[in-house]
Amino acid sequence: SYLGLSRMADATRELKRALELYRSQFGGHDLRTAECLHMLGWSDSWVGDHEQADLALRTAAAEFEQSLGPRDDRTLSAKLSLAMFLMQMGIEGGYVEGEQLVREVLAIRRERLGDASRDAIMVKAMLSYARHAAGDGEGARQLGQDALAQLLALPNHTGSDEFFCRLVLGNGELSCGNQTEAEEQFRAIVKSSDRVAGTGSLPWAAAHYRLGFCLLRQQRWTESEDNLREALVAFRRTAGLSHTYTAYCVVQLARAYFGQGRPEQARTQLRNIIHDCVREIGPDHPRTLWAMTNSAFVLLEHGHLEEAESLARDALNRYRRTLNVPNRHMLDAI
Question: How large is the greatest C-alpha to C-alpha distance in the chain, in angstroms?
């Protein structure tokens, strides 16, 4: 119930209590324990506990595969959850592993159910998401178009399925530079998000964020700001002040403020997200360093060179202290 209401912290608390009870009464390898782990991994990811989320989702997928086999629906669903977590949360190397998992599941579902089945269509939409994350805009667009057309051709489909297919198609269109077509898809999901998930929910926030980002790309600063502010309020409430999606939203909102000639409001937003990350998760946490680096990018874009250099140097020094092997985020700081 809490997951459905986007109350992720409450969901995580209750799922942890449930997991303790399942393990004590039924053992670590019981399917009920695996189901609980699967749900806990998803809620952990939204409250920003990425290490625990990764462990829970991998363990759940392994338990299902061992108990039920690699082609069982619960095994496939757990693998898709792991794939989306790896891709959505920007986990190092996650895009490659996530796409491999999606392709594995898609092949099985096509073989078992056919390419035009609902389950295969939705995995195709996930593959569109993966191609977008990998920088293949045209591949993402074509897969998104196919998935949406096939979904709408079904006798019945849910609003949440249509929401996701339109979201990934909008992403693909935007990657290809098709601003008008992308805006059409994002406006459609904003319109449906109240009905599908409720005002202020995570899907509602994601819809407003994508529309705001699309409008930002068109330099429609005021319209972009309106949608990004709505998204930011919802992300802060549902996911937390230091979550990855909250940070994404702040960075784009700062760009909208700079575009309107409001540099102090932009710089305040960037300082606030860094402060929130330091306070909640610590100065050396990967999300804090990501926020510092991307804030430096925005400041650099708009001529605040000294402040940008100071942030980038601070982030780089912290990366050097905490990483044994450089990753792409450290290279961004360099």
Answer: 61
pTM: 0.89
**Residues, the chain, total?**
334
pLDDT in tens, 67-102: 999 999 999 999 999 999 998 876 667 889 999 999
pLDDT tens figures, 239-282: 889 888 899 999 999 999 999 999 999 999 999 999 999 999 89
**What are the φ and ψ backbone dihedral angles of 262, each rounded to 5 degrees?**
-120, 65
- The whole-angstrom separation of Cα 297 and Cα 301 is 6
DSSP 129: H
Q: Which of 175, 202, 174, 194 is nearest to 186 (CA)?
A: 174
CA 310 to CA 168: how far, in whole Å? 36
Higher pLDDT, 5 or 180: 180
Calpha distance 315→246 (Å, rounded): 19
Q: 121 with 147: CB under 8 angstroms?
A: yes
CA 117 from centre of chain: 25
Measured distance CA(207)–CA(13) in Å, rounded:
27
Count of CB atoms situated within 10 Å of the CB of 134: 15
